[in-house]
Amino acid sequence: MRELVYYVAVSIDGYIAGPDGEFDAFIFEGDHIEFITAEVPDAIPTHIAEQLGIAQRRERFDTVLLGAGTYAVGLPDAPSPYRHLKQYVFTHRDLAPQVNLTVTAEDPATLVRELKAQEGADIWLCGGGNLAAQLDGEIDRLVLKRNPIVFGAGIPLFAPGTYAPAQWDRVRTVAFDSGVVLEEYVRRQE
């Protein structure tokens, strides 16, 4: 069965972006980049992968879920950030039609359960924090690219919700000289 994987860069203090969606403080150079590019080329924006000659075979992910704010980040430079994947943007806003893009106001958890029942590669939850909070119970795996930076404020990994502790098991940790630490967790099955 397909997994919903929340794969995201995060600061030490738990933010995935600054207060206005800034993400330029994250580290984009260093030994972690080659590792991440080789391991998850499908998570690289399409136009960047094309410029760098990186093959995107949709082996790890073939679908990406984004909130409207996360989706909008890539629009100034390219028509659609992940047009090599099936993209679902959760919003009530009208967005211009794009290749492989579905804009929906549907309940995210309902759609994810439908997607998990279909054949295919894993489903990537790209962001943001509000969408992650809505999908909290559906996330099977967390892959956090923890950057050695403190934001102090911004968009949290998960938007505040109700108190409902959930146990996760760490399955991998990879530390890089750049200071980035890749942490991977799977939801504990009770």
DSSP summary, beta strand count: 10
Q: List the strand order in the largest sheet.
A: 5-4-3-6-1-7-10-9
Quote the distance from N terminus to C terminus.
Answer: 18 Å
Query: Averaging pLDDT over every residue, what do you get?
Result: 92
Q: In this structure, how is the largest beta sheet organized?
A: 8 strands, mixed
Beta-strand content estimate: 25-35%
Radius of gyration from the CA trace? 16 Å
Oligomer: single chain
The secondary-structure element order is: EEHHEHEEHEHEEEE
Tally of alpha and pi helices? 5
Unreliable runs: none
Q: Work out the helicity level.
A: 10-25%
Broad shape: globular
What structural class do you assign from the helix and strand content? alpha/beta
Structure write-up:
One of its GO terms (molecular function) is 5-amino-6-(5-phosphoribosylamino)uracil reductase activity. InterPro entries: DHFR-like_dom_sf (IPR024072), RibDG_C (IPR002734), Riboflavin_Biosynth_HTPR (IPR050765). One of its GO terms (biological process) is riboflavin biosynthetic process. This is Dihydrofolate reductase family protein. This protein has 190 residues and is an alpha/beta fold. Helix content is 19%, strand content 30%. It contains 5 helices and 10 strands; from the N terminus they run ββααβαββαβαββββ. The protein has helices at 31-39, 46-52, 68-73, 108-116, 129-134; strands at residues 4-11, 15-17, 61-67, 86-90, 101-104, 122-127, 141-147, 155-156, 168-175, 181-187. Strands 5-4-3-6-1-7-10-9 form an 8-stranded mixed β-sheet. The chain starts with a strand and ends with a strand. 31% of the residues are buried. The model has no long low-confidence stretch (mean pLDDT 92).
